[in-house]
Specification:
The complex is a heterodimer of chains A (273) and B (354). Chain A is an alpha/beta fold and 273 residues long. Chain A has helices at residues 54-61, 84-90, 106-111, 126-138, 154-166, 184-201, 212-218, 242-245, 248-255, and strands at 14-25, 28-39, 43-47, 69-74, 77-78, 91-94, 172-176, 204-208, 221-225, 236-240, 259-264, 267-272. The termini of chain A are far apart. Chain B has helices at 2-7, 14-33, 35-43, 52-64, 72-106, 119-133, 139-158, 166-190, 193-204, 212-231, 233-240, 243-248, 253-275, 281-293, 297-321, 329-347. The chains are: A alpha/beta (273), B mainly alpha (354).
């Protein structure tokens, strides 16, 4: 929060380390020995075709799924050895396209993120309410506080779920397809906001995105994944800065699509040929 | 204070602000205190002719410990007939409502009733067994044991690798209900007419057999369950937003689901075993409260208790005084509940549900 030094890539402290993660669903192997090191405070995007295991990887990092083998470390600690409360205090997760059948107000939804701080036989106190209101203004949805969650737009719901993860006061924020179901304007605004949060609060962001151009524009680093095809090649095609990772050759081997890079006013864009 | 005040703080105009705020506050207090007038009114209702002054005189005499000139039968009517029945009605109404509210939260579905996991079918079978096959088995014990057994087996059937998915629970509940329904049919088919009549009558749900012993049998279980549910009520908000969402904020999902299911089953089984199957209370009361005050379980659960208690005691007043004969209260709750439910469904915030 007080660490807004802005520019990416200045500090090299390790935020998240993934070591040799493998997972199979039934007999289909989804992830095979994936290892990654993610710098603290950086925005890292996982991209790749459907079924490449990016959502699975995100869920493994948040311990929603247990890998067959491999370990995940956050700030040097093995997450499999953490209590559920401790994990929820350092890691927030924003699921994809969330819905609920009850018309909870936005504030009631967001405050559930305080769960790891509220003792079992208790309800959220003044401190929790204060933190909730702070995050609502940080995300600039305080005007929606008392609206029914079921009656706001998809873009607003996405922001509410981000706010819910932020009141956990995490050092790592995981987002699964934060732009799906959003219109063009909301996609850009949400991605900008995610970047802003990461920079102003020194939060490590790991998200999955469908659009490689969004990944290039809004990430410090990109991890390009592919589906396992059984010929021994691993999931990670490339990882590193957007320029290094998203080359036409790498895109081709991940998606099987020919692209060329177009330079628009100093910005690189991927265009399918 | 803080939370509910800011709820209206951003209302479009100032007039609205205070009016809405006070209206909500007043309603909340009214709903919380409703059992009191409902109790007093119900004490005055009954087939035995007894005026309010006589009632007051006898109650005062009992409290002060002195004698009255009024006949002893008045005392019996008040303390051994009306009072246990009224308290039992309130207990049953409160228990069914809080149980329904809890299960609706767990299943994230406002149309769930306390009987979704096979509780009522198990209880009906247990009661039938006690009536017709094992007369030495007390009826309440049979109903209580088999309702717990039914829910327990639905829970275990749905459990796989330490997890109990909600959808499996619903389906397991359907199967368990059918199985116990079939077992009940066997008993009904095999027994004599008198027993059959008792079984059918028990199934309708009635408070006419209320007694202090029934009240004391059910009350401790209801109390334990309610204390647990009320203490954990905010956790239901977390759970109601979805299982993955709950886990990602650090909730030990299976533990809480287990605690909620055990507690809500305990309270509902305890009252079903003494009053039979009283339908719709556990479904409509939480629904009505939610329509007025929103789905926040911090408010929903306590209000379900007081509303459920008031509702059932008033309906039971109708059951015991409105007709020349005793109408099983379960029939009235269903007939009365349905239109109220439909009216509220169409008139209020129900539009917010998907």
């Amino acid at each position: 929060m007080d660490d807004g030094n802005g520019g990416p890539g200045i500090r090299d402290a390790e935020g998240v380390r993934i070591e040799g993660i493998s997972l199979s669903y039934g007999c289909a192997k989804i992830l095979d020995g994936v290892s990654l090191a993610i710098r603290k405070g950086s925005v890292v995007t996982l991209v790749g075709p459907n079924g490449c295991g990016k959502t699975t990887l995100l869920k493994i990092i948040n311990r929603l799924l247990k890998p067959d083998s491999g370990r995940v470390f956050v700030d040097g600690s093995d997450i499999s050895k953490m209590s559920t409360h401790r994990l929820a205090r350092i890691m927030g997760y924003v699921p994809q396209g969330h819905r609920t059948s009850f018309p909870f107000t936005v504030k009631e939804v967001v405050i559930t993120g305080r769960m790891p701080y509220v003792p079992a036989f208790s309800t959220p106190g003044k401190e929790d309410i204060k933190k909730t209101e702070q995050v609502l203004s940080l995300i600039r949805i305080d005007r929606l506080s008392d609206h029914a969650y079921t009656q706001i737009s998809g873009g607003e719901r996405q922001l509410v779920m981000i706010a819910r993860a932020m009141v956990q006061e995490p050092s790592v924020l995981l987002l699964d397809e934060p732009t799906s179901y959003l219109d063009f304007r909301n996609q850009i605004q949400t991605l900008k906001l995610i970047r802003e949060i990461s920079k102003s609060r020194d939060v490590t962001v790991i998200m999955t995105l469908h659009d490689p151009n969004h990944a290039m524009m809004f990430s410090d680093e990109v991890v390009l994944l592919r589906r396992l095809n059984g010929n021994g090649a691993g999931n990670v095609v490339a990882s590193g800065s957007p320029e290094d990772a998203m080359t036409p050759q790498n895109i081709k081997s991940a998606y099987g699509v020919e692209v060329e890079i177009v330079d628009v006013k100093g910005r690189r864009l991927l265009m399918p040929i | 204070m803080y939370g509910s005040l800011s709820r209206w703080a951003k209302a479009p105009d100032g007039l609205c602000l205070s009016r809405f705020f006070w209206r909500r506050r007043a309603l909340l207090v009214l709903f919380l205190l409703l059992p009191l007038p409902a109790f007093l009114l119900s004490m005055n209702v009954g087939t035995y002719p007894l005026s309010t002054t006589q009632l007051a005189e006898i109650v005062a005499a009992r409290l002060m410990g002195h004698d009255t000139d009024l006949p002893q039968v008045y005392d019996t009517v008040i303390f051994n007939i009306r009072l246990p029945r009224i308290l039992l009605a309130m207990l049953v109404g409160a228990a069914l409502s809080i149980s329904g509210a809890t299960l609706q939260g767990i299943f994230r579905n406002p149309l769930v009733s306390p009987f979704i996991l096979g509780l009522s079918s198990g209880a009906a079978f247990g009661a039938a067994l006690a009536i017709a096959v094992f007369p030495q088995l007390p009826l309440q014990v049979g109903a209580f044991a088999f309702s717990m057994l039914a829910v327990g087996s639905a829970y275990l059937m749905a459990k796989r690798k330490g997890e109990v998915p909600v959808i499996s629970l619903v389906l397991a509940g359907v199967v368990v209900s059918s199985v116990f329904g079939a077992l009940l049919a066997i008993v009904q088919f095999a027994v004599d007419e008198r027993s059959l009549q008792s079984i059918v009558y028990w199934n309708m749900g009635t408070l006419s057999t209320a007694s202090w012993s029934k009240f004391y049998q059910a009350a401790p279980w209801v109390l334990i369950g309610c204390v647990v549910l009320l203490a954990l009520r905010w956790r239901l908000n977390v759970l109601a937003l979805g299982e993955e969402e709950a886990r990602s904020v650090g909730m030990n999902l299976e533990l809480y689901k287990f605690l909620f299911i055990v507690s809500s089953t305990l309270v509902a089984s305890a009252v079903v075993s003494v009053a039979g199957i009283i339908g719709l209370v556990g479904l409509i009361i939480p629904h009505m409260v939610r329509m007025v005050f929103g789905p926040d379980h911090r408010i929903l659960l306590p209000l379900s208790v007081t509303m459920g208690a008031s509702f059932l005691v008033l309906v039971d007043d109708v059951a015991r005084a409105a007709f020349s004969f005793e109408m099983p209260v379960g029939i009235i709750t269903t007939l009365l509940g349905a239109p109220v439910f439909i009216y509220l469904l169409r008139k209020t915030r129900a539009g917010g549900w998907e």
